[in-house]
């Protein structure tokens, strides 16, 4: 066990206002000061954020990404493909967080190189527990690479 | 033939030989008729012309000698004519074989030169010896030259025809073989007759050689006849390999799963049947598959090109046949056509199966999207209810008012989703009786429908709107959804300009052009799919509106699409011309106008904008 918990910057991509509210709420409950949460609302914004375009020009790149699959303009799989094909971005761990349990989606996501695939729990308590596990895992157990500059 | 020549008028004949000769003559005449029919069918083909020439020559010889009395002394002119014609026969035959199988210039020159020399020699010969007269040396030499020329022509023809039949479909191969055999037999006749020439001076009776030569000539005549007009039994026998392949193909067609597979099954046996070098299977405007190089299809002479289609239409084959096929394989095309009928059914079936598979896939993805989109607001509502149940007043971020408001919003959103889903499934299925609908009225009503939600949206009618035979509810739904979409995405104070294009025999186009940021052309199709949204957030519509619009247009036989535009989004709805009952004569006061403003609010504007010719004028600025 490493005695020091690292501070992790996580980018949450979720188009549904309410779901985003619940995810952020659950994550901040669980992660406390160790998590720094940033949110975007669609696939294009994820890429804007990662490539520091427009309003995200001065943002630091995240340690990890929580990515919804079904989003307007650019879906999660498309975004995942871009990230994992970019030599600079591919080291950032991506977790798909979706309500789709379709085998095709799971398979495509792992095929494109997602680091994990999480099913959104429908109840807030379940979501809170789920995201607490996620947060503990990434802030405590896992060792993350430094995000690309 | 040499036999006929050498014996003509010299010697008394006994019955058997006379009968033999007669049968031979008749056979040659019938073969001549068959050759004529082939030429008649394929007049553009050079081979057909040479074929006809060959038999015209031979039949002329027969006609000019058959009526003559046995011992008649031929006038010199007639003798010369017969000799020339006899020499022309192998030459024509060779030219036919040459034209059929690809010209070899050197051979043509050789045969032509030799023939010409011998003909010329005959013309300058001083005299032909009388019957019983001793033959002088020059005349014997001439006779050998004549035999040599004949043997060269017929021999080369036989060889070329045999060679050309190789690798061809069974019927063509066997017909070529028969023609080759006919030529060969004629050469043989000549060799046999040459013995006859040697003995002719002494003998005045029918020799075995006469009979043998007669039989061989008759066989040659039959070979030619069977080659040109094989009886259908013989053809079926020759065709058995191809028939087997066709049979196999039609069995395979039963299980073909795609039009491309149909093409790959049909084309090879089809090509074998007609001896095609290149062929392509076409369905409507699209090519389903091809064999050989496609460039070959437009090269080569017209008479070698084949284009047939299935009797009910739709499916067709374009092919370039081998040079021999159009001349000798005509009947096989009818068999090929039968295969095309089965293939056309198979293509239809494969296409329906594919359409069904696509529809199933769409349905599956639709159900997935529908359940996903219905679950989202539900999960949110349950989440907020859970938060309310475990509400702690001092917990940061806990705002029961906000939670209730979100439950409310999500509930209504879900309700609109369900309503629109039901509408989407009803369009085209459960519709009221169509009636003449003034689009102008639909626009006014729709403007009122959306004014509460998008108070700053301006709607301008740019030309006289049509009267369409359709359900008034659907008309209003169509326009309302388009206006809501513009209100949502085109921004504050956006303007939608409605205009009409086309008409007459073509479909009428009603164009809704807004001045918002427009839509990326790459999303032009996506936006019409249910649940597809280009913007995020719950206030952004449910993603079904445009799908309903398109379905309304399609249910009327029209269409709806996004047209590329330099600025703003340009939606086009087309209506089939038979549903267009005319244009509104008296549009709402003030055409072109902005519609749907509260009554009385812009009366002065209506006055100003009134125009006698509503079609050509443009909207005045908004009030």
**Rounded Rg of chain A:** 14 Å
DSSP strand content of chain B? 5-15%
Q: Sum up the overall morphology of chain B in one term.
A: rod-shaped
User: What percentage of residues of chain B falls in helices of 4 or more residues?
Assistant: 55-70%
Mean pLDDT of chain A, as a whole number? 87
Can you give the mean pLDDT of chain B?
79
Q: Provide the CATH superfamily of chain A.
A: Response regulator
Q: Which two chains touch over the largest interface?
A: A-B, 23 and 25 residues
Number of strands of chain A: 5
CATH architectural group of chain A: 3-Layer(aba) Sandwich
How do the strands of the widest beta sheet of chain B line up side by side? Answer: 6-8-9-11-10
Unreliable stretches covering 5 or more consecutive residues of chain A:
none
Count of folded domains of chain B = 3
CATH architecture of the largest domain in chain B: Up-down Bundle
Total count of strands of chain B: 12
What does this structure look like?
The complex is a heterodimer of chains A (149) and B (623). Chain A is an alpha/beta fold and 149 residues long. Chain A has helices spanning 17-31, 43-50, 76-85, 103-111, 124-141, and strands spanning 8-13, 35-40, 64-67, 94-98, 116-119. A five-stranded parallel β-sheet of chain A has the order 2-1-3-4-5, sandwiched between helices. The model of chain A has no long low-confidence stretch (mean pLDDT 87). Helix content of chain B is 57%, strand content 11%. Chain B contains 18 helices and twelve strands. Chain B has helices at 2-7, 15-41, 46-66, 76-101, 105-124, 137-165, 170-200, 208-228, 232-238, 240-253, 259-274, 325-328, 332-389, 400-426, 439-451, 472-489, 545-555, 603-609, and strands spanning 276-283, 286-291, 305-309, 315-321, 435-438, 458-461, 466-470, 495-502, 508-514, 559-563, 570-575, 580-583. In chain B, helix 2 runs antiparallel to helix 3 and helix 6 runs antiparallel to helix 7. The relative contact order of chain B is 0.06. Chain A binds chain B through residues 15-19, 21-22, 25, 41-42, 70-73, 99-100, 102, 120, 122-125, 127, and chain B through 368-369, 372, 375-377, 379-380, 382-384, 386-387, 397, 406, 410, 523, 532-538, 540.
